[in-house]
Structure formats: C-alpha cells, structure tokens
Amino acid sequence: MSATEAAAAAPTVDVHAHVLLPEVEALVAALPGFAGARTLDARRNGPAALAVSGAMVRERLPRLTDPAVRLAAMDACGVDVQLVSPSPSHYHYWSDEPTAEKLYRLANEATAGHCAAAPGRLRGLGLVPLQHPALAVGALDHALAQGLLGVEISSHAPGRELSDPAYEPLWARAEERGALLFLHPFGCTLDERLDRWYLSNTVGQPTENAVALSHLIFSGVLDRHPGLKVLAAHGGGYLPTHIGRSDHAWSARPDAGAGCAHPPSHYLGRLYFDSLVHDPYVLRELVRVAGADRVLLGSDFPFDMGAADPVAALRAAGLPAAEFHAVRGANAAALLRKD
User: Fold this and answer.
1) What is the edge-to-edge ordering of all strands in the sheet holding 122-124?
2) Are 64 and 303 spatial neighbours (Cβ–Cβ below 8 Å)?
3) What is the pLDDT along the chain (339 residues), one digit of tens a residue?
4) With b meaning 16 or more CB within 10 Å and e meaning fewer, what string describes 273-288?
5) In a 3-state reduction of DSSP, which class is residue 52?
6) What CATH number is attached to the domain comprising 38?
7) Which residues, in sequence order, are CB contacts of 229 under 8 Å at separation 6+?
8) Nearest alpha-carbon partner for 194 in 46, 48, 51
9) Residue 8 falls within a domain, yes or no?
10) In a domain, 5, yes or no
C-alpha cells in the first residue's frame, strides 16, 4: 500500500470540537468572582454579540451536551472521530486555588464521561488552571488518568504569558507523557476596541493565537521541549501567514533573536494547526509554511464560527490527494494514537 493509499484509509478526525459542561457552571455560578468575570466578558464582547451568542448556544445545546445528538451530527458530515474539548468558557481563570482544583477535576471527569458514550469515536481533552501554575502538573496528570489525551489551554492567564518560567514544569510533564496541549484562546485583551461587530472573536481569537505562539517560540520553550505537542486552534491565527515578519525581526534585531535558537518559521514545523481558517487560499498557505503533516482537520463543532462541513472546506483548498488525506485524518490518527 502506498503512502497516499494508507492516508486515504485513515478515519476522518475532527480535532476541534467542544462539549458544554453544565456541572462546571453550576460549581462557579454563586461565587463572587463569577460576576466580575461575566462583567469583563460583557465589556469585551458588547451587548449585541452576547445576545446573538446566547441564542446560538441555546439552539445548539443538544449537540454540545448529548453524545447521541453529537454522533448523529458527525455522521451527517462524514466525521468518524472527534477530539472533544470543554468549551473555553469553562476556563474560569479568575478562580482561587481550591475552586480551580474542584473545577479541573469536575471538567476532566465530565468530559471523560461524555466521551465514554462512544469511546471508539470520541476522544477528550481536559483543563488545567493556568492561573495557578503550581496546580498545572497535577491537573494534567488527572486528565490523563481519566483517559483523556491532554488538555486545552488559553493563550494566557491573568498576569502570565505562556513564556512565563512558572509553566516549565507543565511543559516538561506534557513532553514526558506525550500529552497534547490544545491552544484555544478565550477572550482578547484588546477589550472594548473589539466590542462591536463580533470583532472580539473575528479579530481577537487569531490575534491571541499569534501572540501566544510567539511567546512559546521567541522564549525558547520549543527549544527546551522539542517533543512538546502543541495544537493551535484557528490555524494558529495570524502568525503562520505573517511569519516572514517574525523571521526578519529575529535576524535583524538582537533583542528579538535572543531567546530562540532558530528563525521563528523553523518552529512551525514543530507545532500542529487545525484547518479552521475559513479561506481555501489561507489553508493552502498554512499547509505550505507548516507542512502537510502539521495541519489537522478542525471544525469548532458546533459553534457558529465553525465549519458546518469541515471536509468540504478542506476539499475546497485543492490540495494534492496525499496532503488532503493527511489533513483529513491521517495526521490526527498518528498524533492521537496512544501506546
């Protein structure tokens, strides 16, 4: 069997799909910090976005919570396997240490329970409290103990970027255990500048992706942990298609090049990216700069900013057959395989 034939035989795997966990929200709903977090969310998004998002989530709630409804939706768009991660709204990085520990345990166990309804088709990711780095390794270990494949993280925590040395134990443990880190932003620190026309998502998410990945690259995290498995949502945001500017800074300025051993473009081949870029030409460029073996099918199921038919969106890029099948499922099948 040729490499193309082997890739074509792989299942179709969607690595960007979410589950909503009502028990997590019930845990935090009465806590004082929750009101402040909701106020910040309202300020960042604006009233129009919140109204539309609320109605959208209510309409899609069965797909977010009921495994049977999820599986039927997967069948309808030809997806064999989903990698299910908690809705980023469950991060709650404002919570104190005791609450954060309760939250990650509840989220990890609930996600594992959701996936247990169809273990051959649903694999899961847990959460770690980035606001409390001392808890992060334990949270990762807990997620893996539930049979999850890794954890989902945001682009930053309050007062900490991903380049913060406090996260070194987390990167080391994830590398040691072969755990996947799914980088999915929630909220953008540009705040009210993006509070109209849903700019908080359309501009904010790819901005946060680019900033977070730049911190991992320029700080040398990927040099110190070359086996780290980081999967960036939304195609890595703005960074992959503008990586030339980062390379230029690295070569032209001693302050830019001081922290990492290679030009930033070198590290795109050490990262993974989902295919959710909403433009076939951008997807082709992502495959070109990162490599066809580093891009994985992603839909953001079942939210409205996702791809209702991710395979059709991938097909529109017109990739060669071997690359199409690699992105469609073969790359994910290899990445998510557990020894």
Assistant:
1) 13-19, 81-86, 122-124
2) no
3) 676 777 788 999 999 999 999 999 999 998 988 988 889 888 888 999 999 989 999 999 999 999 999 999 999 999 999 999 999 999 999 999 999 999 999 999 999 999 999 999 999 999 999 999 999 999 999 999 999 999 999 999 999 999 999 999 999 999 999 999 999 999 899 999 999 999 999 999 999 999 999 999 999 999 999 999 999 999 999 999 999 999 999 999 999 999 999 999 999 999 999 999 999 999 999 999 999 999 999 999 999 999 999 999 999 999 999 999 999 999 999 999 853
4) bbbbbeeeeebbbbbe
5) helix
6) 3.20.20.140
7) 150, 174, 175, 178, 179, 180, 181, 272, 335
8) 46
9) no
10) no
> β-pairing, 180-183 with 160-161?
unpaired
Instruction: Please tell me the pTM assigned to this model.
Output: 0.96
Is the residue at 260 inside a domain?
Answer: yes
DSSP assignment, residue 278? S
Q: Is 332 exposed, middle or buried (0-12, 13-18, 19+ CB in 10 A)?
A: buried
> Are the CB atoms for 132 and 166 separated by under 8 Å?
no
- Please tell me the total count of domains within the chain: 1
Query: Domain of 195?
Result: 13-335
DSSP category for residue 269: T
Retrieve residue 224's tokens.
């110190």
Phi and psi at residue 33, to the nearest 5°: -70, -20
Give the position of tokens 């050490």: 270
Has residue 1 been placed in a domain?
no
